[in-house]
Amino acid sequence: MQGFFLKKEFLFLVLSFVMLVQLGYSQSMNDIQNLKVDNLSDAQIEQLIKRAESAGMNESQLEAYARERGMPASEVGKLRDRIQQLRSGIRPGQQQQMRPGQQAGQVRQIAGFNMNPALFDSIRRADPYFDLTPEQKKIFGYKLFHNRSLTFNPSLNIPTPGSYVIGTGDQLIIDVYGASQQSYELTVTTEGRIMIPNLGPISVGGSTVDAARPRIRQQLAKIYSGLLGSNPNTFLEIRLGNIRSISVSMVGELIKPGTYTLPSFASVFNALYAAGGPNENGTFRNIQVYRDSKLIGEVDIYDFLIKGEHSTNVTLRDNDVVIVQPFRNRVELKGPVRREGYFEMKPEESVLDLINFAGGFSSMAYKERVTIRRATGEQMKVHDLNTENFSSFSLQDGDEITVGERLNRFENRVQVSGAVFRPGEFSIPEEGMGIRTLIEKAEGLRGDAFSGRAILYRTKEDLTLESRSVDLKGILDGTVPDIELRREDVLSIPSRYDLKEEYYVRITGEINIPGAYAYAENLTVSDLVLKAGGFKDAASNSYIEIARRVRNDISGKIAEIINIDVDPQLNLSSEDASVILQPFDHIFVRRSPGFQRERIVEVQGEVFYPGEFALSNANERISDLIRRAGGLNQFAYPKGATLIRRTEYFQPLTESEIKEQNLRSVVAKLTREGMSLSEAEDIALERIEKRLLDKEEAKVKMEEKEKQTLASRFRAERLQDVSVGDTSLVQYEFKEQELIGINLGTIMANPGSAQDLILEEGDIISIPKELQTVRMRGEVLFPTTARYQELRGFKSYISRAGGFTEDARRGKSYVVYANGDVQRTRKFLFVKFYPHIEPGAEIIVPQKPERQPMTPQAWIGLATSMATLALLISNFTNN
C-alpha cells in the first residue's frame, strides 16, 4: 500500500511539473518582468508579439507595459531589437556592421527593399524632382516651382526703379552733393510722409520715385539754393534703403494657399514660388491679380517658359490678391516630340501652337499627320489631322494628341558585304543601278574575293527573303547580263578564306614564346623557332618532334611523327632547318634529360653559415645541409630545431615567372643608378625589355596555367570539395607551409637514419638559441611565462600560473615543445599522466565545452515522457 502511494505521489509531481511549464507560457505576459530576452527563441518572441496584439497592444505599448511591470531598461532595449530583427527578417548574428551613430532601424522601405537613409537622401539630392509623382512631372510648367536648385526670390541689389511706388515703411536715402554735402536717411511714416530736419513733412506715400523727386528737390532748395536754377551746382540723388514688406493673399488652386509677407519688390512669380506654385488642377495660363477689388493683370506662365518674357509679370503691392483658377482646357501630347506631357491651351490656340509648346517634333516623328482622340458626350471620337490643318484645328479639354513614328524602312537602300574595299549601304539612283555599278561604288573587289559566285538576298513583297546565285566574274567581264538591283537588296561576296579552315602551326615545350602562330607557305622549322624567340636553356640537345595530321589514312594511324636532330649548341642541321611545315603541325621542343633547375633550401639560426643553399643532389638530407652550414655553434638548442616545409597548397612560381622576375631585377639594376650606360648595356637593356614585352603579349602565364599538372588540378578540386561539401570546414585555413618537429640531436648523431629526412625545395631549417622559459596558456588563473627549472613537472608550472580555472578541461591538457612536437595528457584508471616539460615548451589547458541549457520545449518533452512512463508503471502495477 505504501508503494502504491509513493507511485501516486511521483505521478502527481510529474503532472504538476508539466502544468507549471504550460502555465509559465500562459502567464508570460503577466510575468514579463522576469523575462530574459537572450534566453527566448524567435518562436517565443513571435508568440509574445501575438499575445500583445491579441490584447490590443502595439510595439510601443508593449514596451511601456514591460516597463510598468518592472522589466529592466536593458531588457526592454533587447526586446525592441529582437522585435525589429524579426520584422525585417534578420536573425541574431546576421546584423550588418553599421557606422557609429547610425541606427539599425533607420531604413526606408522602397519597393520592398531596405534602403539606407544616407543613400535615400543622396538620391533625392541628385534628382531635384524626386518628390513629384509621374503625373505631376508630365504637367508642363509644374517643375518650375518644384526645382530645389531654382528660386524666385526678388533681387534687392538693383538700382532704384523710377516706377517704384513709395509706401509706409520704406526708407529713402537722399544724398545731396556738389557745392554742399549732406545725406538723409528717412523712413516713410504711416501717413505717407518723410520728415526732413528744419523743413517739415513732405508727402511721398503713393507716389513713384520719379514723381516724388521734384517735390523733395523743391523743399530742399530752401536750404540748398544750388539745387535750382539753370546752372545748378548742387545735385540730388534719391535711392531706397530698407524696403518695406507687403502682404499678399494667394488663393485658389495652389500647393500652399494663404497670406504671405513679401518684399515690396516682389512680383507674381515670387508670390507663386512662395506658395509652391499651382497644384495639379491649377491654371498656368490665366493667373489673375486683383488690387482694391479690381482686376489689374493676368499672368501667363507659358510666356516665360516658351519665350522668356516677363511682360505680364505684375509687381505686387500691399494687400494684392493673386487668384489661381482651375484650368479650363488641358490636353495631352504623346509620341516623338521634344517634350511630352500635359499642356494647357487657350481657345484661340491650335495644334501648331501645341507642337511649339512641346519644342517641335523629334527626329523620329512622322510629321505629316497626328491623331486626336476626343471624348464626346457619349463616346470617344478620333480625328486624323494632316499638316495643312495644324494651324486651324482648335483643341478641347481632355484631347489626347498622338504623334506617330516614321517607318523604319528605306526606300532606296542596297547593301554590299564581304570582300570589297568599302562594304556598307548605298543608294539606288532614280535611273536604277546594277551589280557592276554597286561594286564600283564599293571601290572594287579585294584580292581575296571569291569571284566564282556571290549571293544576292532580295526582300519580296510579302517581306520574305529569297536568295539568288550570282556569277560575279561573268557580270564584271560582261559575258553575263547584269542584274538590276531593287531596294533592300543585299549582295554578299565571300572571301576565299571564308570558305576554308584558318591555318596555323603550334610550338610548345622549351621555347621562349610558346603558342600558336599563323601558317604561311614555305614556313620552315627554323623560321618558326626564330619567331617563337628561340630555344630555352633547358631544351634538349638531342632532338625536337613534329606531330603532323594524317589525312586519307584509314589504317588507324593518328599522327605522323617527325624527329629533327639538334646539336649541343641547340642549332638545327641545314637539312632539318629547311623542313617545310604544313598546316596544323605541332612542334614539341623536349627538355633535356639531364637538365635540373637549382633547388633552394635555407638554414636559419644557430649555425656558423646561415642562409640559402642549393641542393647538390636529390637525396641530400638534413645532416648534410647542417654540415655544409658549418655545423651547430655553441649557442644552438638542437631540441628546439624545426623543419618548415611547403604543403600541397603552396603555389610555386613557374620557370617563366622566375625568369621574368630575374630579368626585371636586371633591368632595375641597370637603370637604378641614373648613370649613362655603355653601348653594350644599352643593347642588353633594349633586348631584355623587348623580351619582357613579348612575354606579356604572348600571355605566357595563361599558357602555363592551362598546362596545370594533374596534381595541381586535384589540389584545386580538393579545396573546392572541402569548402562546399563540409560546411564545418568553411573557416578552415589552408596553410601553404607547415611546421615539422625534428630531433636534430638524434639526426646529427645518426646521419642517414629514418629521422634524417630528405630535403625538398623551399625547406627551411630553423635552429633557435637555448631556451630558458616555459609558457602557460588557456584555462589557468594567470597565464604567464615562467623560468624553466629542471625536475619540475607539469603541475608545478600550473601552480606557478595560479592553478586551473573552474572551466579547465584538465584531462585534455597538452604540451607543445619547441620543435613543434605535441604530447597530450594520458589517463590510466583514475590517474592522469601529464607530459614532461622541456625548455621552450608551451602548456595549453583547453576550456570545457559550454553546456547548452534545456529549452522550455525540451523540458516539456522530458516531463511528458516521464508522465507517460509513470502512467505505464502505474497501470502495470495495478494489473
Class by alpha and beta content:
alpha+beta
Overall morphology: extended
Overall number of domains: 9
- Identify the CATH architecture of the largest domain: Roll
Strand residue percentage: 15-25%
Give the spatial strand order of the biggest sheet. Answer: 9-8-12-10-11
- Tell me the number of helical segments per DSSP (H or I, 4 or more residues long): 22
Which range best describes the helical content: under 10%, 10-25%, 25-40%, 40-55%, 55-70% or over 70%? 25-40%
Distance between the termini: 14 Å
CATH class of the largest domain: Alpha Beta
Radius of gyration from the alpha-carbon trace, in angstroms: 49 Å
Q: What is the β-strand count? A: 39
- Chain-averaged pLDDT: 79
Low-confidence stretches: 1-29, 90-116, 706-712, 722-732
The name of the CATH topology of the largest domain is Outer membrane lipoprotein wza fold like
Largest sheet: 5 strands, mixed
CATH homologous superfamily (4th level) name of the largest domain: Outer membrane lipoprotein wza domain like
Key terms:
Outer membrane lipoprotein wza fold like, 5-stranded mixed sheet, alpha+beta, 24% strand, 879 residues, 9 domains, wza like fold, 22 helices, disordered N terminus
Task: Outline the fold blueprint.
Layout: H1 2-26, H2 42-54, H3 59-68, H4 73-88, E1 108-110, E2 113-115, H5 117-126, H6 134-138, E3 171-178, E4 182-187, E5 193-196, E6 200-203, H7 209-220, E7 234-240, E8 245-252, E9 258-263, H8 268-274, E10 282-291, E11 294-299, H9 301-307, E12 321-326, E13 330-334, E14 341-344, H10 351-357, E15 365-375, E16 380-386, E17 400-405, E18 413-418, E19 424-427, H11 435-441, E20 454-459, E21 465-470, H12 472-477, E22 490-493, E23 504-509, E24 515-518, H13 525-531, E25 539-549, E26 559-565, H14 574-577, E27 586-591, E28 600-605, E29 611-614, H15 622-628, E30 642-646, H16 655-672, H17 679-698, H18 700-706, H19 710-725, E31 737-741, H20 744-749, E32 764-767, E33 773-778, E34 784-787, H21 794-800, E35 814-816, E36 822-824, E37 826-828, E38 831-833, E39 842-845, H22 856-878
Parallel strand pairs: 8-12, 13-17, 18-22, 23-27, 28-32, 33-39
Antiparallel strand pairs: 1-2, 3-4, 3-7, 5-6, 8-9, 10-11, 10-12, 13-14, 15-16, 15-17, 18-19, 20-21, 20-22, 23-24, 25-26, 25-27, 28-29, 30-31, 30-32, 33-34, 35-36, 35-39, 37-38
